[in-house]
Design goal:
Largest sheet: none
Number of domains: 2
Structural class: mainly alpha
Shape: globular
Number of strands: 0
């Protein structure tokens, strides 16, 4: 289906307004700005053929954020599977790409399991209330609260963040 000129203009405006913030949010989930940019681009690619419908939603940015979160979770799941396969292959000393990076929240977030990371980013970065996070992630509100509690506990014990406080 071809977009009208008005729809194309609205989509361009939506992209300009949403892309930078969504890249920031997704980079907190993935730990990589480059990967976040890829994921957000893919989310927008999925949006284009649906724009006429999604643009009428109460929250088109919520739809886009949900798609991006699911794409990030899928990539994480696939990377985890790939990493477990790599562990079976004997390797010589492989440098850890995380070595030498600064101590920061982004790095601490990458240490959380994806469900807890998603909840923390949606709550603390996107300022979404628990019910909306539950809807976005397709889980119960109690599950969101539990994930947030686990994320807070893990982040409070994170040497990455505790070390950053002393610098």
């Amino acid at each position: 289906m071809r977009l009208t000129e008005a729809d194309e203009a609205a989509l361009r405006e939506f992209y300009s307004a949403q892309q930078p913030r969504l890249v920031g949010v997704v980079s907190l989930l993935t730990g990589s700005r480059a990967e976040a940019e890829d994921i957000v681009q893919e989310a927008f690619v999925r949006l284009v053929p649906r724009w006429a419908k999604v643009s009428r939603y109460e929250s088109p940015e919520g739809w886009l954020r949900l798609v991006a979160m699911r794409l990030a979770a899928n990539r994480h799941r696939n990377a985890t599977r790939f990493a477990s396969l790599l562990r079976r292959v004997p390797t010589s000393d492989v440098p850890d790409p995380a070595d030498g990076q600064g101590l920061d929240l982004e790095r601490a977030l990458t240490q959380l399991p994806m469900p807890a990371r998603q909840a923390a980013v949606l709550y603390y970065v996107c300022d979404l209330p628990v019910p909306e996070i539950a809807t976005t992630l397709g889980v119960a509100e109690g599950t969101v609260k539990s994930r947030l509690s686990r994320a807070r506990a893990a982040l409070s014990q994170s040497p990455t963040l505790r070390g950053a406080d002393h610098e």
